[in-house]
Write a structure and sequence with these properties.
Order of helices and strands: EHEHEEHHEHEHEHEHEHEHEHEHHH
CATH architecture of the largest domain: 3-Layer(aba) Sandwich
Pfam family, one: Glycos_transf_1
Radius of gyration: 21 Å
Largest sheet: 6 strands, parallel
Number of domains: 2
InterPro entries: Glyco_trans_1
Strand order of the largest sheet: 2-1-3-4-5-6
Keywords: Transferase
GO molecular function: glycosyltransferase activity
Protein name: Glycosyltransferase family 1 protein
Shape: globular
Amino acid sequence: MKVLIVGNYVNDRQISINRFVGLVEKGLRQKGHEIRRVQAQPIFGQLKSSPQGLGKWLGYIDKLIIFPVQLRQQLDWADIVCICDQALSYLTPYLKDCKYFVICHDLLAIRSALGEIPENPTSWTGKQYQAMILRGFKQAKYVVCSSEATRADVLRLTKITPEQTEVIEDCLSEGYGPMTRAAAVNLVAKFNINSDCPWLIHVGGDQWYKNRLGLLKIFKRLIAFPGLENCRLILMGKPLLPEMREFVNQNNLSAQVIELGTVSDEDLRAFYCLATALIFPSFQEGFGVPVIEAQSCGCPVFTSNRLPMTVIADDAAVYFDPTEHEAAATIIAENLLAPDRLEDLRQKGFINATRFTYERMIQSYDRLLPKL
């Protein structure tokens, strides 16, 4: 079949979504489908390449005015159109005569705009933008959700029927899994981090729901426990926001909180293999890929006692309330100081991660296409 994959605007720099789109594109091509990928290109956005300020408004011209015209020119070629992010649902009115489906990773931005998430207030213009996305999303002919938690939100906030939805969980990127300690040490040597200290890691962006300030508060309490004073917290992803960096400085954590920014998949795999644990205190997630990445590499996982993390990690993680920093630190400390418990988490994590293979995800999308 000829599948037209619609990806995100280039200047929005959606790293995780782009990685996911690449996996879907590669997998469907391997299944024998003919694939084209289209996405809004920076035209007015060339004047200022930024997801904020003037760049954001110029991007709206590229996304909302220019790209729909370009998309329509591709529709005659396609048997099926795949909208790879619910944030692109404003395009559904242009697809009325097409077979298509929307992949919904989460509805957090829409829920925030509706006032359901007070921790993440939305500006007036943001509310209008999300309302436009929601109007388009409600017209979707078929929706693939990344988790049951996301599917529940879809059914609650729209008139889309259960028969118009299904869950296809995300997968591990190819290449994740254990590596020898020597190989991992060699890969991360360039970062010059003291390997004699226990490493706790976090992987994620600067979105509110990642709860990175909460992570720092948990870490501050964690290193007060005897035996954990020398732990390092290694952050991979977007830089800390100013309020988070201020917390680090005010609490004299600069020597123990290490920001690496974005690292390669192979370096990330090495950090998972060497780390004592992943701490993943998100308030919300669409799926939570770092959880299964860590488990596949033998890294114990401590994460929030909220959906979808409790489903994704199953019985192979230790859970805590992400709003209770003292209690979370106590739970994590008790397990970090128990080698047998950490080894049990490693072994269970290996098993759990096998549920989320690349082949399983692609087979699910391949089976979906003829049904549309």
